[in-house]
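Reposting from the mailing list since nobody answered there.

I have sequence plus structure tokens for a pair of proteins and want to know whether others read the tokens the same way I do. The first protein:
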Amino acid sequence: MPRLSAPPVLLSESDRLVLEKFVRRSSTPQQIALRAKIILRSASGEGYGEIARALSISLDTSRLWRRRWLELSTSDLPVDQRLQDAPRPGGPPKFSLEQLTQLYALACEPPEKYGLPISHWSARELTTEMVKQGIVESISERHVGRLLKEADLKPHQSG
């Protein structure tokens, strides 16, 4: 059975210069520098196996980045964006930016304003108040806590 040869990679002079700069520059993240090396070696005619051995990477990594480069080379994306990770799969965010903003605003208000006999919000009270106000249909206390932590909001320490 004949072996499949790697598709050729043709680089413009400007792309080659940018890739070489990424490889030489010490501030380039290692993943990006490695990907640039894969593309430069691909353009010089090396096959998947040669690149994998030379760079101590898997054949799959060699194939992936050559294929990705070829797919994106017809786009108008700059070189650095072509070397970035592809978006990860996953569901869309469950809460809108507006709902998050309402949570943060609520957390910054005194609970007394909402008729609550407490001096500071907890995740439990925020969760109850968000559902009561119709901001969200449901949300867990833990998720409210994570959202507040990500936003660096500490309503339990305010006052």
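The second protein, same order (residues first, tokens after):
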Amino acid sequence: MFLGLRTVIYPAKDLAAGKAWYEKMLGSAAYFDEPFYVGFNVGGYELGLVPDGTSSETYWGVEKIQEAWKELIANGAQPKDEPKNVGGGIWVATLTDPQGNTLGIIENPHFQIS
């Protein structure tokens, strides 16, 4: 079901400073830059910064998020944030695995490993 790790999102209390630091460290500009999210393509993987986060989030790629959501719940995961479209045909959701870990899943038709 999982296609591999796809996205990590870090909280950035000062989004502009976080963006500047990662642009310097990565040697490239953010490809997505909005007040609610700054996104970088790092070797085909997503590094996201959000101003309102409290902890890091990691998302596993899936082909069909609704099917993955149902299968994970059927196998003991607890729903946290139901699948939602975040734009551009990209869907995200989070669950809690049986060990209490947050498990993010993402359906992203634009994802390509470079």
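Reply #1 (J.P.):
I read it the same way you do. Residues 4-107 form a domain with the 2,3-Dihydroxybiphenyl 1,2-Dioxygenase; domain 1 fold (CATH 3.10.180.10).
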